[in-house]
Amino acid sequence: MSTIILYTTPTCVYCGMVKEFFKDNKIKFKEIDVTKDDKAAQDMVKKKIEEIIES
CA-CA distance, 54 to 20, in Å (whole number)? Predict the structure, then answer.
């Protein structure tokens, strides 16, 4: 099974809601704070652009 990667920021309300949902439902995930990791922030943007292009 693949690991869920959750890109977050400390002030993102939706990120907090998703983390709480995952924890409540015992769903394993890896959290990456994009405010502390520039490469992860770039990866997140790249993935979003790819998603837009594919749709």
Answer: 30
pLDDT above 80 for 17: yes
Nearest by Cα to 5 from 27, 34, 32: 32
Domain 4-54 class? alpha beta
The two three-digit tokens of residue 2, written as one number: 């693949």
Parse the chain into domains and list their residue ranges: 4-54
Cβ atoms of 33 and 9 within 8 Å: the answer is yes
How many other C-beta atoms lie within 10 A of the C-beta of residue 18?
A: 17
Answer whether 0.90 is exceeded by the pTM: no
